[in-house]
Design goal:
two-stranded parallel ribbon, two-stranded antiparallel sheet, single chain
Length: 215
């Protein structure tokens, strides 16, 4: 079974967030600011990654976005090179269609710092500028996760994935049950408004600043 550029979804409606020009404008402005910050931080982060573990500076992976459209998501590399090929050797501590391990041996020393501070996610501002993602949305799933979806999971794809969202504010890496992530994603869709997006951005900055829930 091959992933499709757009998955068939029995829910036939457009979520208001995907039609909002104001949300898109905020995304573009936020992405430009985020990319400027990324450019300033790029050199020290790149040097640290290279010294700690030789290999690419960036890591990319195919993810599923709005209504299952696939796109390439970018991050600063936080694991050893070719880490994806070694995933089967690491115990999955999460429940459901996600993979997590609190002490994943593939994560580098610099990578742990990047993850705790969420600096590894800054290249995703490029995905936001392109329109694949939003500043605020749902957690972007992998293709393998989506291919195992049950019927009630599909609704979470009715909005764009975000750099941050309910899952980031309510628990980050501490959430290890996929069904809990789904509920948070659907809760975001029900509560969505521009003001709610802005409140989640502010809450994300606080959570990242105190380094709560990330590993």
């Amino acid at each position: 079974m091959q992933p499709q550029s757009q998955l068939e979804n029995p829910v036939d409606f457009s979520h208001p967030s995907t039609l909002s020009w104001a949300k898109r404008l905020i995304d573009v402005l936020g992405a430009i600011i985020g990319l400027l910050i990324t450019a300033i931080l790029f050199l020290p982060i790149a040097i640290a990654i290279k010294i700690d573990d030789p290999g690419p500076i960036f890591y990319s992976q195919i993810r599923c976005g709005h209504r299952g459209r696939t796109f390439r998501m970018w991050k600063f590399r936080s694991m050893i090179a070719d880490a994806d090929k070694l995933q089967h050797l690491v115990h999955n501590q999460a429940k459901g269609n996600i993979f997590k391990n609190r002490h994943d041996p593939r994560v580098t020393r610099v990578g742990r710092f990047l993850r705790r501070t969420s600096l590894d996610e800054f290249p995703q501002f490029w995905n936001v500028l392109k329109g694949d993602m939003s500043l605020v949305g749902t957690r972007p799933p992998t293709v393998s996760e989506v291919m195992r979806y049950k019927e009630h999971h599909w609704k979470r794809l009715e909005v764009k994935p975000g750099i941050t969202g309910e899952w980031q504010v309510r628990g980050r890496s501490k959430i290890e049950d996929f069904e809990e992530i789904v509920q948070l994603d659907l809760q975001y869709q029900d509560r969505w408004s521009l003001l709610y997006d802005l409140s989640l951005v502010v809450q994300t900055v606080f959570v990242v600043f105190v380094r709560d829930g990330a590993y």
